[in-house]
Structure formats: structure tokens, C-alpha cells
């Protein structure tokens, strides 16, 4: 088999191997960023699928438009409008999860050798999606307010060129950090000054535990420079594989052509049943329930980390989302510790941080997810790991 | 927006615009290759979705493996084994329809400028999927026995190079032609001699009206050179968006990494409900029903073409699938005729043939689908078009 050159960049990812570790029922895994399945609205969805197939089977099981079901695009557009951006349904493309948006935007924009700007660290799935298009990465430092916009400016002023900047501004994966309003305003301004596109990936946006929502980059942009990705995975269920892109219509038209080429369309049935669920149920109540549960899990995990981990281990205190980001003392290797001690001795898994750095990164970080495990498992897992760490550090 | 160079090859396709024409309810469209929706097993699927969500909601709505649900891969492997090829479930990747296989195989194999061999004409969706990877096409002539294997041999003996050959051997889209056994054997032999891969796309394979099935290229290959694509779209329902690839495991592993990058996975719910449907129902009986109905529609369309079209218009007599391919007198422009006469005067649409030729092709062909329209519409549409043609030709 003579593979294309791009396949050199397509390799199994550490996180995927780790999810396999987590499948061992004796291991408590804080690795996967899975939603808590007890929060899935199973009764409502069961009824929605039943009635969709029974009443509209011939439509629901047939081919439909590549751009996605019109009613569902209207519902997404209404949510986007409610979140601060006037949005026509023709500016919405329904995707096979937001992940597909990463693939299609990469395909649309990246020529081999182009530089993509990312946060440092950044979402691994974005790197996995972009890699086949053979970009180079320039990773920009973050702090508690998100990406360092001065560093973005300096990159361009120093002669750097990049087609787009990829960011997860709300409760970032993996750090849990949220970009401040001032940084967002500055970033949108910089995009205009230096002529680049912002790819705003915000699957966790509705999973906010406290404080008011900060305007999306999409809503701050007046220049058509933001492509925004959202998802039903965290507020409804990931098994439906439904997300969306919002962008100026000419961009959506291009992405729709790529969607058609890639997989024709999303499942008509999933789109129709989801649309029906949204019409028949109060999704805001569902989101409020998710927020309450995850807020409680975050509080529990942070309390347990404070109580059981050595003080030399720092961690972020996210205002939403699924993750906290741990920083161990310099030189501590979280991957080695996990393989040699955490998994065999404490029966606990997480994601070592090095995997989230687009280029070489430090080995002393880890991503802990608090969304999937039960309260009991969070307590037991953090306590066991803390006891082990106190012996080691 | 500074698009990647590959976007020059990403354009709206004629067939997509035509499907829009067909949406006008006053037009009888033989354009779209849609299954007859009255054949969808709606009751069985409604029950399958209801029980899947009710009994296994937490699993069905959650993330699952990128390679696809294990049980569904077993079921596909069993069908492939039944069709002449020993197949392990690890040699199966579940796809978002066979279309996704075209995208992922293109991504895996095509470097910019590589030559892809195709039949002439060929499936438009394959060209649409391959185009973003910037191949060149070398299209090989066909006759009633399928692709001209001597011409394939001559291409390579003349110094041509190509990584893979794309074929739809069973009831080809658009021509309805089936590749003979002798040609299949020769093609597999040539693949070994000249070191190329065969991409066998066979979504219509089970929709055979008469005669025994001819062995798949996959089953004839002993050298790991065939990637086979199949689909539930024609035997169950396209709205589920489920298809599969079968290939040697190292190739499936690469495709699985690309699937993960492209959209994480297929809908867990759709995979689980489809698997359950296959366990609970007799899919062979469903396929027999589809064959009977489409055979009747083929017979009707061919009889109507014989009765109403001028003798100067020739057409194929497919042994299966959804399509017949019409050849009008040399110089007759089927696209112009459709726009200026067939649609406005006869209220009938089809797909002009030029769109199916990878490089320049003649304008005197058309693809007629007999699968979607009712018997009454087939009768009325062909009669109206025939009357118009008799005035013109």
C-alpha cells in the first residue's frame, strides 16, 4: 500500500489508548471527556424517535439536504441569536459533531506547510483533524484569561503568517480556562489587523457553572472572520453525532460542498428526532440540570484535590465544562507516573498533559475530567492517587 | 477568506442542482438515485429504536469506538463471509455511508497530482470525494462487460502510474452495467502485476434482479489489494447513514484513524438500533422485497422506453441496481434538452450524462433512475418525454 504523504502525520493518539485503559472496570478513569450518561434524556428521546419514525418514516429514513434539516438549522440559528449573534438558518451547517467542523475547516483552509495558530496546550482532536492537511503549528501561551493576545500580535508583527487561529474560548479542553472579554475583543481586532480567521470551537459553552456568559468571538466580530462550532454532544447526547458550524453564508456554502463530498449528509433520522425533541421539550431545563450536576462534580473533585493531593500540585478552577488541568512540580513525568504507578498501584487513569501540546511541551501536566465518574468514584480515585503522590512527591 | 488550493476543485455539482429541480412537485424526476421510501421497514426500525433507547439508552447515546460497534462489525463480517470472503470483524470499519469511504480512501492514498483510474463514465460522488485531494483522472472505457481491462493493462504498459483504480462493478452508477467474472479476474491479476489498489464500491450489490451473483473483486483477491465498500442505504435506509469498508486490517487501522479525525465515530444509536434490527428481523426477506419491487420498476421503465422513445435512443438493460443509461444520437445535448424542453414542456427531469465523465465526455447520454418514482409516474414521465423526443429527433 503506497500511502499519501499526509499519512505520516496520522498516528494513534495517546488519549485513544488511554480510553482503552479506562475500559478496565477496576480502573477509575478521569481520562475520557465523556458526558455523564445518567443525564441523557432517554425517555424524551425514545418518544421522539418512536414518533418520528412512525409518523414521518418515509422522510426520516430517506436522503435529505447536505446542509442539514431546515427546521434544525432554524433551531440552532435561534439559539445562536439568543447568544448574541443575529443568525440566518442559511448561515448554519449541521455537522457530524463539532469534530467534523474541525476536519472540514482544515480541509477548506490549510495548504501543506501553512501555519495554524493554537492555544498552548490545545484540544487534541483539533490537531488530529488538522494533521492530514499538513500544517505547521505555532502555539501561543495561555494564562488564566486565555490566550496571550500580545503574543498573537507579536507573532504577526514579527513577520509570522497564519491563515487561522484555533481557540476553545469557553472552559477550554484541556485546561478549563475561559478567555476574558478583553482578550476576546483584542483577538477579534487582531484578526482584522493581521487578516486571519478565528475558528471558535465552543462545545462546552452552555455548561457554565457560575457567572454570566462572556460574548462569543462570533458575536464580537463584524468582519465575517469567525467560524463558530457548537455541539449537541454535551447538552443532549454525543451518540447522536450532531453539531453545527455558523459562519458567513459563502463560507457555509463551501463547507456544505465539503460535507457533501465527505459523507453526503448527517443522519436524517437523527436530525429530525433531535429537532422534534427540541420542539417538544425544554432544553434549557435540561441544560440547567447538566450544569447543576457537573457543578457539583467539579466542586467535589476540587475539594478532594485540595484535601488529598500534595500542595506542590496545582490545578485550575474552571467555571464550566468538564475538565481541570493539573500542574505537577517541574520535571515530574505524568505519563511515566501513570503507567508505572497510578494505574497499577492506585487503579486510577487520567490524560498526561504532553499530548495536548502541538509542538514539544512539558511533561508535568495532566487533564482530569470530572464529568463521567460518580461522586463515589471521584472521591475514591482522587484519594487513592493523592495517597500515592504524597509518598512520591 | 484565503481558501486552500484544493478548493478550486470543490464546486457545486450538476446533480445536486438537479435534485433541487426534482423537488418541484409538478416535475417527475428520474434524476435522484433515491430508494423507494415505501420499502423502508418503518415498523421494525421504530421498534428497534424504541427498545434500544429504552433498554440501553446510556450506552446508545454515549460515545463509542471509532471503528464502529463490535456487534455490527460482526454482522457485516458475516454477510461478507456469506458473499465469498472470509472476514474478521477487525477487517470491517463502519462508515457514515459508503460515501465516507470514498473520502477516507482518497485521503489515505491520493497525493496531489496522483493519477486515479476510473471507469468512464463513473460515479459522480466518487469524483466529488476525491477532488479535494487533487488527483488527475485517467478514465478507462467500458462496454457491456464493464471496464476494458486491456485498456487498464495498456495504460500501465505504456508507462502510466496510478495508485488505485475505482470501480462500481455491480449495476454501476450511472450505466447499470455489471463487470463480468472474466474481467474481474483479469483486473485483480493486473492489480498484482502493476502494483495498484482496487477500490470496489458496491452499494447496489444486493439489489440483483436476475442471475447468480458474480464474485466480488474482494473475494478474488489473494494479495490484500482490494478495499471494498458497502452500504445499508439501499437495503435498509439511507437516512441512517451507515456503510462499511472491508480491507486488510492494517488498512482498516489507517482508515479508522482518519475516521476518528474526520468525525470521531458514527452515531452509536444508529449503529446499535441497526444491529438490533438485523438480529430481530430477516434482512434477506427485506432484500427480496426490494429486488421484486425494483425489478418490476426496471421492467416497466424499459418497456415504456421501448414503447415511447424514438429507436435512435439506446439504453442499457441492468440486471440490478437503480439506473439505466441512455445514449442519444451523437451530438444531441441532453443537458440543453432538459433545461429547454424536458423540464418546461414535459415536466420531466433526469441527469444529463456529461457530469459522470471524469474528464471531458460526450453530451448525448442521460442517467434515468427507476427506483424512486411510482409506477404511474414512470409511465407518465417516460410517455411525455417520448412524445417530446419524437418531435425533436
From TrEMBL, chains A, B:
Its cofactor is pyridoxal 5'-phosphate. One of its GO terms (molecular function) is transaminase activity. Transmembrane segments: none annotated. Gene3D superfamilies: Aspartate Aminotransferase, domain 1 (3.90.1150.10), Type I PLP-dependent aspartate aminotransferase-like (Major domain) (3.40.640.10). It comes from the Bacteria. Keywords: Aminotransferase, Pyridoxal phosphate, Transferase. Residues 55-384 form the Aminotransferase class I/classII large domain. The keyword Nucleotide-binding does not apply. InterPro entries: Aminotransferase_I/II_large (IPR004839), Class-I_PLP-dep_aminotransf (IPR050859), PyrdxlP-dep_Trfase (IPR015424), PyrdxlP-dep_Trfase_major (IPR015421), PyrdxlP-dep_Trfase_small (IPR015422). GO terms for biological process: alpha-amino acid metabolic process. It holds the Pfam family Aminotran_1_2. Belongs to the class-I pyridoxal-phosphate-dependent aminotransferase family. Homodimer. This is Aminotransferase.
